[in-house]
Amino acid sequence: MNDARPPPPAPPAPAPGALSGYRIMWLIVLFDLPVLTKPERKAATSFRHALLDLGFEMSQYSVYLRFAAGKEQADALCRQIEAAMPRSGKVHVVQITDRQYEMIRTYRGRKREPGPKNPGQLTLF
User: In whole angstroms, what is the distance from residue 55 CA to residue 69 CA?
Assistant: First the structure.
């Protein structure tokens, strides 16, 4: 008696152009900019406004998030962020997949908040 069973069928391949949790990207921009002088404060404010104009939302004062449909769009946004950066300060741009983003744990005080919500639909320009 042979109990060898055929392997389970592979999941269907996504349709060309379909969005995948492993292709969709999230950009997280973290920054620490000098704000001691009036020109530095103006540059920092201008950078934050540029991020908002690019469709980022503020998660914390120096942490901004944005959804991107794929690596190409994420790379294009990185170039726009780089163009908007002030001359001084430190800026990090972290790219993670949608699947990684789903695993974020958020706490307010010691109380855990619900996981991050994904956008309802992809906006195309």
Answer: 13
Q: Which two tokens stand for residue 99?
A: 């699947």
Average pLDDT of the chain to the nearest whole number: 84
Give the rounded distance of the alpha carbon of 28 from its chain centre: 4
Distance between CA atoms of 52 and 29, rounded to whole angstroms? 11
* pTM (two decimals): 0.74
Q: Where are the alpha helices (DSSP H) in 16-70?
A: 38-53
d(CA 89, CA 48): 13
Dihedrals φ, ψ of 112, to 5°?
Answer: -80, 135
- Residue 42 has which token pair? 């103006």
Read off the pLDDT of residues 66-83 as tens digits, 9 standing for 90 and up: 999 999 999 999 999 999
Taking the C-alpha atoms of residue 43 and residue 66, their distance in angstroms, rounded to an integer, is 21
- Locate tokens 């920054």: which residue? 31
